[in-house]
Amino acid sequence: MVFNTSFALAEDYDLCQSQIDEYQNNGHILLRKVIPESEIAELRTSVLRSHEALKHEEEDFQKAFRITQNLWEINDTVRAHVLSKRYAGIAAKLLGCRDVRIYHDLTFFKEGLGKGKPTPWHQDGHYWPLDTEGCITLWVPLIDCPVDMGPMSFVSGSHLNKNAEHLPISDESDEYIRNLVEKENLSVAPAQHMNAGDATFHSCWTYHAAASNTTDRTRIAFAIAYYDADAKVPVEPPTNERRAANLARWFPGAVPGGPAATEKNPAVLFPHD
Question: Are strands 135-141 and 152-156 parallel, antiparallel or unpaired?
Answer without folding.
Answer: unpaired
